[in-house]
Batch of 3 targets.
Target 1
Amino acid sequence: MTTARSDAESAARLVALGMRPKQLPARDVVYAELVTRYRQDDDFKGIVNAIAAGLGMVVLAVTRQSGMVLAAQEDSVFEIRMDEYARRTAIGGRRGAEKVIHGVIHMAVAAIGFPRPDDLANDTYIGRVSVEQVDAMVREACRMLEERAKAAEANNDPLEDAPELERAWRAYARRPAAAITKDGRLAADTTRGMTAKAMRFLAEQGFLVQVNADQSGTYRTTPRYQVQVRELAAVRAFDELLDLGVVAVTGSGGSLHTASDTLSGELPDV
Amino acid sequence: MGGGIADEGLARRLKALACTAPLHDLDGRKARLDWADASGYQMAEIALQIIDQVTIAMDFDRGAGHEQVVVRMRPFVGAQATDRDEDEHDRITRWVLDNLINVGSVDRGFHTVYGTFGVTGEYQRRAFDFKLLVELAGPDGEVYLRATDEAINVLVGALDTDVESAQIAAEVKLENLIRRGRLSDAKLAAEQARYRTVQYAETLRRKLDATRRDVRAVDWTAEVPDLIDEALRHIEDRFRAENAILRNITAARDDAEDADRKRRAADLVDIVGDCIRRHTQLQARLQSAGETFRAEQDRQQFSGPPQRAAVDLFGQLLVPCLDLPLAGAERPTSAFFGAGAGLRLPSVPGLVGLVEMLLVPAQERDGLGGDVAEPDLAPLPASDRYTEQQWRAVDNLFELDEIPRRLSGLLGEARRIDGDLAGLVVLRALHAFSPEVGSAVRQGERWLVLAVADGTDLMDTEYGGADLLVARARLDPQSPQSPQSAEDGEVA
C-alpha cells in the first residue's frame, strides 16, 4: 500500500518536473533518477502515463537529454491556443492573415532548426536559428512560389471581394520585414518583429536557448523542441494538410535546397 | 484563370499606372497639411527625387538611411521654397518619405483594384498590392530604405525591358550625345545607365544571398560559373566604354567656355565616375563568389542518409502551407502552433506569491503593448453659457435688413431685453467680423451676418474696441467663385 502511494507520488513528481520546461535531468539528481526509473520500470511508466493522461496531457518522450516532454491534449487546460497567442497583435479585420503569418513563422523556425528530415530524426542534432535567417528563408520561399505562379501564367492577384482566398505567401511577402516606429524602435507588426516574438516565446517554453544577439537574436534548439516538433507538431500539421488533400513528396535529403528554381527563377530579370 | 493576351497587357498597364498614383496623391493632399503652407512645394517632384536618392544609395549591403535621405534632399527641397527654414524643408521631406513608405498601413504598401475577365468571360475585380520604398534591417540592426522594382520601373519608365540590351542602347546613345555636345541629354542617359547598373547589382546580390543561405540552393557546376563569367565579361565591356566616355567628357569639361556647360559636364563626370565605382564593387563581389561558395560548403556540412523517417518541415509543411489560400492555411498552421508551443501553465497565486506579486515593481512591457482598455465615458457637463431663450432673443436682434446697424445700438437694445444678453451680442458680432464665407456658400446659406469696422470707437461701459457696423449680406449661389465681391456689394 505504502509503495503504491509513494510510487504515485514519484510519478506525479516526474510529471510536475516535466511541466517545468527549463528543468533538465542533467542538472537535477532526483529528476535524472526518475527518468531512469521511467525507462526501466514498466509499472512506473504506466502510472506516469496515466497521471499525465488524467491531467489532459500526452507523454511524448522521456530521455536524459530532453527530460520529460509533455504535450497538451486538445481542449485541455494546458493547451496554448493560437487565438490567445495572436490576440494582442490582431489589427483590423484581417485576423485570419495575422494568425496564418504567426503559424508560418513558427513552422519556419522549426524548419530552420531542423533543415533536413535527418536532423529532425537525429537525437544528437542541435540546430541554430536566427531571426534574420527565418525571415529570409520564408521570403525566399515566397519568392519561389511567386516565380512558380508567374511561370504558370495565371493571374494570382487576389479577388477584391474574397481576400481570404489570397495565397498565404502573398500575405507574408506583402508584410514589411522591418519598419521604424515614430520613436525609433522596431515595429512589432513586421515579420521580423513577429519572428522575434515567436523565438522569445519558444525560449520561454524551454524549446530554444539564446546564444547571442547576432542577426537580431540567435538561438540554438533544445532536445525538447526536437521531440515536440518530431512527435507531435509536424505530424498534426501534416495530417491537417492530408485532410486538405495537399501531399508533397520530397526526397530523403529534404527540400530546403529547392535548388535551381532559385536561380533560373531570377535569371529572366537579369 | 487569366484572360486573353490583350487583357493581360491592359492589366499590366493598369498596374503601372497605379504605381504613379501615390505620387499624384501627394500633390492632391498637400493642401490639407495643417503644419505648413505646402502649396509651394511640388510633392511629386520631391517624391521622385527621394526615390532617386534611395536608388542611387542602394548597393550590395544596404540602402539609404532615413536621415541620410533627409540631408541629401535639403538642397532640392530648399530650392523650391527659399523663404522657409530648414526645419520645414526636413519636415516636408519626412512627410513625403513617410507617404512613399505609406507609414500607418499595416503592410506599409499601397493597394489598388483593377478588373480582369475570368475564364468564363465574367468581369472580376482583383487587388494589386505594391510598394515604392521598403524598410529593411541591415546586418547591424539599423533600418534602411531600398526602392522596390516597382519604384525603379516607375522611375526609369522602362517596364519589361531587358537590362542588358537596354544598357547597350543607353551607352550608344550616351556616346552619340556627347559627340554632338548635347550634355543635358547625355546626363539623362548616364543616369539611366546607372539605374541599370544598380538593378544588375541587386539581382546578383540576391543570388549570392541565396548561396549563403544554402549552398545546395544554387547549381555550382554549370549555372553559376557561367553567370559569373558572363557578368565579368559584361563589366569588362562597361569599363572600357565608361573610361572612354569619362575621357571624352573630362575633355569637354575642361574645354568648355560656357559656365553652365562646364557645370553640366562636371556633373556627368561625377555620374560616370560613380558608375565605374559600382562596377568595381560588383567585380570584387564576383571574384569572391567562388570563395564564398567554398567557405559555405565547409560550413554547411552534408550529412548521411536519414536514420528514421521524419517529416521534411520545409518541403512538406512550410511550402505547401504558404501555397494555400489564407482560409485553408489557418488550420494546419494553427495545428502546428498548438502542438508545438508546449504547455500553458496556469498560475496559482499562493499567499506568499501574492504578496510578492503585489510588491514587484511594474513590469516592463514587451514591444507589443497591452490590451487597449475600454475607456469609461462620462457625459460632458453642460457647457452652455446662455440659455435657449437668450439665443433666440439674440437671433431676433440679428434679423437685420440690409441697412447696417451699429454694435452700440444692438447692445443697448439687448440690455433692454436682458442684462446678460450684451455678452452674447458682442460674441456674435465678433464672429460676424470675419465669417467663413466659403463654407457658408457651400452649405447653401442665403444670408450671412457680416460685421465691418469703420474706425468709430465703441463707447460702452462693459466693452471696448471698434463700434462695428453689423449688416446682413445676401449670398449669391450663382457665383460661388467670388463670394468676396458679392459680400462687398451687399455691404457697401
Note: Chain B touches chain A through 99 residues (CB under 8 Å).
Target 2
Amino acid sequence: MNIKPYGDTLNDGAMQLSFTLPVKACGRAAEAARLYVLKLGFKDCSVVYQEALSDDFTFFVAYAKSDVSLDYSKVEYAEAVSDTMTMNETDEFISRHFGRKLVVVGACTGSDAHTVGIDAIMNMKGYNHHFGLERYQMLEAHNLGAQVPNEKLIEYARKVKADAILVSQVVTQKDVHIHNLTQLIELLEAEKLRGKMLAIVGGPRISNKLAVELGFNAGFGAGSYADHVATFIARKLAEKK
Amino acid sequence: MKSKLGLSKTKIAAARKSAEKITAPVQKFIGDHSTVAVERATLRLLGADMTSPDGVPVPNMLVDALKDRIQSGLSRYYINALLKTAKTPQELNEAIGKGFDITSFGLVDAHHIEQKGRELVDAFDRLVSKNVQHRRAKLEEFSSAVKSPLLYVIVATGNIYEDVKQAQAAAVEGADIVAVIRTTAQSLLDYVPYGATTEGFGGTYATQENFRIMRAALDEVSQKQKRYIRLVNYCSGLCMPEIAAMGAMERLDVMLNDSMYGILFRDINMYRTFVDQNFSRMINARAEIIINTGEDNYLTTSDAVEKAHTVLASQFINERFAFRAGMPSGLMGLGHAFEMDPEIKNGFLLELSQAQMAREIFPDAPLKYMPPTKFMTGNVFKGYAMNAMFNFASKATGQSIHLLGMLTEAIHTPHIADRFLAIQNAMYVMNSMADFQSEVEFKKGGIIQKRAQQVLDETAAFLSEVQKAGLFDAIERGMFADVKRPKDGGKGLAGVFEKGPDYWNPVEDYLKKSLKAA
C-alpha cells in the first residue's frame, strides 16, 4: 500500500513546514524559502508567513505538497512491547513464572542531570496515572537518581543481583547519549554481565530501534510508562528462562 | 495591596517565624565555618585568577598548596605573597600558574597585610559600585521600555559565540532577560573553568571570560533596542561563591541561587551548601544581583497539586536565609512553577490561586515564574496553548520574572524561532489583558481563594514539623522533595572547615559591614 501525507484529500501529500533562514527578511528571502522547499522535493510550495527574528534571521511558515509515496507494507518495525499488562497482571505473571521479586536498578547515567524520566518510570506515584515500578509488589526497584557514572550503576546492579538495568537519557545534544550508552554496554560486556541482566534504555529521543542497534534489549521513547517497561521485563526474562 | 485571596496575615507571620527559627541554628553553623569555595571566591575578589598550563585555576592551586592553613583563611597568604614579591595580582597569578611557590614565605607584619587587604577590597568595592551605577543608570535611561513581567529566555548552544547570536536575536524579538544555561554537570565541578569556551553539552561553561563576552553582546543590543537586557547565570553547585564573585565583577544581573537546591537535587553536601549559599548571597546582594530560587524543582519531581506547600515552605526558608545574608526583598526572585497536569479539571484555577498567593505573601520580591515542562509532550501545538495559559496566569497575578515556555520543551534545546514564537505568544497575551489584574477579584470562598488558604495551612503545618526536627535532620529524613540526604553524605563535605581562632577574611568583613548582614 503506497501512502502519502493527508492534508484534506487522500494522497494530496500536503505538509506543513516551519523553519528559519539566516538572512534578512525581505521578498527575496521569502522566494529563497520557497525555492529551498522545492529543492527538498516538494511541489506547489507556498510560503504563507515570514517574520524577522533579528536583522540576520527570518522565520517562515510554508505549506507544500509532495509527490513522494511510501510502500507501507515494506516498513519494518517492532515495538519493545506490543500489548501491555496492567500492574496486577504483571505482578501475577512474575509470581507465577519466577516465584520471587525481580530486581530492577535504574538511573539517569553519565553527566545527564535530569531525573524526570527515570522518576516517571520508577517512582511509586508514576506519571500520568500510570504507577511506577516501586509500586509493583513483585518488583524490587532501586532508583539511583541522576548523574550516576556507568561504573557505579554496574557495581550497584551487581551488588543487588539485578535482573534488569534501566537507563534514562534525556540530554542528547551532540549525541552525548550515544557515547554514554555505548560505554555502558561495553562495560557490561567487559564485566561479563551482559547476558545476566536485561539492559533497557528510555528517554524522549530514544526508540526501540536505536536501543537494539546499540546493544540494549529494548528502548522506550516518549509516551512510554512503567506498564510498558514492567511488561517487557517480565516477559523477556520469562522467555529467557 | 489588597488581598484577593483572603489569606490570614497571622498565619503568614507565623510561617515566617517558623522559617526564622528553622534557619537560626543553620546560620550559627554558617558563621563558624568556611569552605574551599568561599576561600577561592575571596581570592578571586582580591585578584586571583588564571590557571596552570594544564588548566588548574590559581585559586584551586592555592587551596591545594596551603592545605591546613586554610583554617586561618587564605587571604592572608595571598596578600602576603603580593607584599613579599612586590608583584601585582596579575603578575603573581601568572607566576603561581607557572608553579611559583608562595607557601614558604614567612608572614609580614599583620598591619601591612591588613592594609593591603583594605586596598584590594577597595578596588573590588570600586568595581562593583561602578557596575551597580551603570546598571541603575541604564535601567533609568530605558525605563519607559520595561515590561511587566520581564520576559526571560534561555540560550544553550554550548558555544559562547553561538549563544551570543541567539541571545542578541532573542533580545531583538523582545526578551528582557537572557540566561546562558550551563553545560551539564558543571555544578559538580569543584573548580571554575577558564577562558572562552565553544564545547558544552546542553549548555555552555560558566567562565569569567564567557560572562564578559555575553555581557558585551547584551550591552550592545541593549543600546540598539533601548532596553536594558539582563544577563543570568547559575550561581549553584560546588562553585556557588566563585560564580557569584565572577558575576559581581562582570555585571551579571540575575543569578540562579537557592539555599537547598544543590543538597536535594544535586546531592551536594548540606553543610557545604549552606555555607556557600550564604557567602554567595552576600556577594549578590552587594552587587545588586537578583537571585532566582529553584522551587520549580519540587514540582518537576513531585506532584504539583499535592506538593504545592513544599514550594511555599521553601520560599519562606529561602527568604529567611537571604535576609540573614543581608539581602533585601527586592533582590529575592523566589521561584515557583506552572506544572499541574493539564488534564486536571480547574487546574488553571489552582495555578492562578498559587501564583496569586506567592504574589501576596512576597509583595516586594521579583518573583520568578517557571513554565510548564513536565507535561510538555512533543505535541508542539498543545504545548503552545499550555504556554499561553501560563502567560495568562503570570500577567493576571503580577509576576515579575517570567521564564518563557518553549513549544519544543521536552524535544531539544530551543531552535532560534522557538524563542520568537514564545515571545510573540507572551506579548500578545499580556498586552491583550494588560489591566486584567486590577479589574478582576476572586469569589469569596470560591475555588481560587480556598486553594490558597489550604496551601498556606499545609505550609504552616509542614514548617512547624521541620522546625521540630531541625533543618539538618529534616533533610536527612527526606522531608523535602522526598529525597533523603545524610548529613555527612553528598559531594563537597571535605571542603568544609571550621574557622580557626585567627581566621581572617577581609572580603567577608567588608561584605558584612556594607550589608549589615546577620
Note: Chain A has seven helices and ten strands.
Target 3
Amino acid sequence: MASILDIPRNQSAVVRHVGGDRSFRRRIMEMGLIPGTAIRVVGVAPLGDPITLAVRCGRISIRKDEASVVEVVT
Amino acid sequence: MNSPLPLVALIGNPNTGKTTVWNALTGNHAQVGNYPGVTVERRVGWMAIPGGNGVNLLDVPGTYSLVARTGEEQIAIKAVLGLQGQLRPELVVVCVDATNLERSLYIVLQFLEFGMRVVVALTMVDEAAASAPDPEKLSARLGCKVVPLSAHRRQGLDGLRAAIATALKDDVPPPSWRWSPSPILRSKLDLITESLPAEWPKNDATALWALMSVGAEDELVGIPPALRAAVAIDDKAAQPLDDEAIIGRYRWLDTEIHPLVAKPPDRLRTERIDRLLIHPVSGLMIFAVLMFSIFQALFLGADPIITAIEDVFAWVGAGVRSTLPVSMFTDFVVDGLIAGVGAVVVFLPQILMLFFFLGLLESSGYMARIAFLMDRLMRTMNLHGRAFIPMLSGFACAVPAIMATRTMERKRDRILTMMVIPLTTCSARLPIYTLLIASLIPATLVGGWLPVQGLMMVGMYGFSIVSTLLVAWVLSRTLRPLRAKRLPFVIELPPYRMPIFGDVVRMMLRRAGSFLTDAGRIIVVGSIALWALLYFPRPSPEALSSWRTELAANDTGAPEDVEGLERGFRLEQSYAGRLGQAMEPVLSPLGFDWKIGVGIIGAFAAREVFVATMGVVYGIGGDVDEQTPRLRDRIRAERHRDGSVVYTPLVGITLMIFFALACQCMSTLAAVRRETRSLAWPTFLFGYMTILAWVVSFAVYQGGRMLGLG
C-alpha cells in the first residue's frame, strides 16, 4: 500500500486510511485530513524532515514517520 | 443591584484573526487572570453591545477542536462549559476563517452538538475575496448567525455586536447533530452520560467529549475515576468511534458547506513566498540572516538604551545622595531601592524588542515555518522547533528569552526550554570572561596567527552551546515532567499575512507590563535583600578606628586609596563577607578563596556585578569595569596567605566554567517563577545548575592540577 512518502513532490493523491496512534490520527483527522480527502506534498524541510502537505485550503506539516502510516491512492 | 454582565466566549482555530477581533471588540482592556490548573493567561474584557450594559468577553486560546489530550487543550472545554468554578458563557463567538471554511467550521459543529448559542464571526473575508461564502446561505445551513468581518479595515464589528445582542435574547437552542451515532456509539454515550460529574452538563456532546479525550495516555486533569471507568476504552476500540464522529462531521461539511465556496481561495502568494522561505538553500539562508538580525538587535541594538537607563538611575541615585544627609537610610534608598528599580527597568529594552519581533514573526505566519525548519535539529534534544528563538535570545539575556517560551503551547516544552536557557552565554557573562581572560590568559598567538585570548572566548561560547544541548537531552530523558512523550507533530503552516501593527504593539506592551508588575517585584525585593547582605552589619566605630590605626602602622609609603580600602574592610565584615569566608571549605577545592566567594554572592544581583564586587573586595572601589587596568593588575597580584598566587590561569578558567554553568542571576529565577507560577521550578533550576557548576569546576580544577597546570 502506498503511503504519503510515496507521493512525488507536487503530485496529488487521495487518502485511503489514516494509521498511527490515537492522538496523531485524531489530531490530523480533526484538521480535515480524512479518508477521501485529496492531498498534495508541497515541500520537504531542508533537513529532510518534516514534510508539508496541502490539505483542503490549508497547509499541514507532519513528520515522515507519521506520514508513512497514512495510506493513499495515487 | 446590577445583575452581573453576561459572559461571552471568543474562540476559534489558531490563525483565524481571533486576537484582532478581541482587540477590536474590547479595546484590549482586560482583566488578566489564570485558567485554573495551567499557566495560561485568562483574559476577560468588557465589550459594548447595542441596548444593554455590555458583556464580558472571554478570550479562549485558539484550538482546532474541543477534544483534548493535555491540560492546555482542556482549557477550551472547561471555559465553554464553565467548569472548575468558572462562569458558564451564555454565548460562543467562533472566529471562522473564510479562506479555510470547512476546517474552521468543524469546531462550530461541536458547539452546536452541545446546544449552545453560537455566533460565527467570518474573518479574512477580504482575503478570501470571490471564494468567500455568502453569509446568508452559510447562516441558513448552520442555523446560527454569521457576521462577515474584514479585520484589516475594521468592517463588520458593529454587525457582530448587534448579532451578539440579538442572540443573547434568543432561547438556548437544543443540541443539533449533523450526523447520527451508530448503535454501538449510542450505547457507549448513554453509559458515559451516567457517570459524568454533577458539575458537567449531562448530554451526549459531553459524553462524546469524554469518550474522545479520555484515554490511557491522556494528561487531562480533574477527570473523576468513575468517568474514567465508564469510558474505559483501549486505543484500538476507540478508533472506529473517533472516526465515526470526525468523518461524520466532515462529511456534512463536505456536502453542505463545500458547495458554498465558489472556487478555492487563491494561495499563490503564500506558495510563492514559501518556495523561497522553506527552500533547502534560500530558506536556510534567509532564516540565518533573520535570526542573526534579531540577535544583533537584542545584543548590540539594545545596548545604548540599556546604558542610558543605567546612567539615568545612577544620576538619580547621585542626586538623591547629595540631597539627603549621610545615613543608613540614604544608603538604603540609593543602593537598595533605586538600584533595585533600575535593575528591573534595565530589562525593558530587550523585552520590548524581542516581543516586537515575536509578534511580527507570529502574525506574519513565519513562526510556524521556524518550527518546520528547525524541527529535525531541535527534536534530537527533545526540544520543540519553536524553542529556537527563545534559546537564541538567551545568548543576549535569559530574562526576555524565558518570557519568550510562551510561544510554545505545551507546558513540558516551555519548562524544558526554560530549564536550559540560563546555560546559554548571556551578555552579562561577558564582562567576567573579558576580565579573567585579559588578566590571566597570555596574549600570545597559536601557530603565529590565532590569538589565544580570542580562542578562549570562542571556546566559552562553544562550551555553553554544548552544555545547553546536552543538559536538554539529559533532562528530557530523566525528569518525569520533562520526559519526551510521543506526541504528534502536526502543525499548520498558515498563509502569509501582513502583520497588524497595532496588535503586535499591544501584545508587546502587555508582556512588558506584566514583567514589570510580576517579576519586577521579586527583582526589587531581591536587590534590596542582597544590598542588606552586603551592607550589614556595619563595623562599630571602635573596630573601624582600630582598623585605621593598623592601616597607618603598616603604611608602606605607597599611595593608598584609603576610601577604597575602607569599603573593602566593611564588605569583609558584612554578612556577605562572612558568608564568603564560611563558604571557603566548599570553594577551595575549586581553587577559589573567600574573596571570590563574596564576588559570587554579589553576582547574584546580575552576573556582571561580580566585576564591581571584586573591585570593592580588593579595596579599589566599586567604580571599576572589566577594562580597568588597576583591577587586572590587582587580580594578577593577589596572593594566598601562604604567598602563592590566587589567580593562576587554571583558576581563571575554572571560574569562567563556574559562571558558565551556575545560575548566578536572581532575575532569571524571578522570570522562571513568573512564567511557571511555581516555586519548585526556579528552585530546581538554581539547584541543578549550582551542583553542575560545582562538579564541573571541581573536575576542571583538580584535573588541571593533576596534569600539572596548577
Note: Chain B has 32 helices and ten strands.
